[in-house]
Amino acid sequence: IYTTKTGNFFPGQKQMLKKWDEKFPLPQNEMDWKTTYYGGKGTISEGLGIGAAIEQGSLVSQVLSQEIPKSINTYLLAGSSADIPFFHNEHTGTSDGLVFLDSATNKAGIANLVGTATIEANHLLLPWHTKSVAQISEWLKK
Q: Whole-angstrom Cα distance, residue 30 to residue 40?
C-alpha cells in the first residue's frame, strides 16, 4: 500500500488508516504481526508499517476535523459480522470484517446525527443486506 519508486498503486488502501492498537490488541499469535504493524522484515513479509502508510496519505484526521453542516441530516449504518469469506477478517475487536465498529460509528464532525443502526452483516454485504435496505428505506421516508 506504500508509495514506492515505481508508483502509488493502492492509494485508497491508505486513505482511511488509523492506529487502534491502544484500544484493540495486536494479534500476537499471527505470523509477522509485529513487522506488519510496525515495519520490518518478518518470516514471510516485509513492510514499512502502518505509521509509514498513514504518513503517506491517510485522510482520517482531515475527515474527522471537518464538520458536516447541521443542515444535512446524517445517518450512520455499520456492520458487526466479521465473516467475509476467504478473507482474513479483523478480529481483535468488533468489526464488519474490515472496519472496527468503533470507527464506523464515530460521530466526530457530525453536527446533525439523525439515526444510527448496526446490522449483523459483513463489510461486503452491508449495502444490500435486507436489514440494511429496510433501515435505509425507513430513513429515506423521513
A: 15
**31 in Cβ contact with 43 (< 8 Å):** yes
Cell of 76: 450512520
Distance CA(142)–CA(137), nearest Å, equals: 9
The more confidently predicted of residues 83 and 142 is 83
Neighbours of 112 (CB within 10 A): 12
Instruction: Note whether 131 and 90 are within 8 A (CB).
Output: no
The average pLDDT across 123-142 equals: 97
Q: Residue type at 94?
A: T
Q: Is 65 exposed, middle or buried (0-12, 13-18, 19+ CB in 10 A)?
A: exposed
Q: What is the pLDDT of residues 22-36, one digit of tens each?
A: 999 999 999 999 999
SS (H, E, C) 24-46: CCCCCCCCCHHHHHHCEECCCCE
Lookup: cell for 81: 459480522
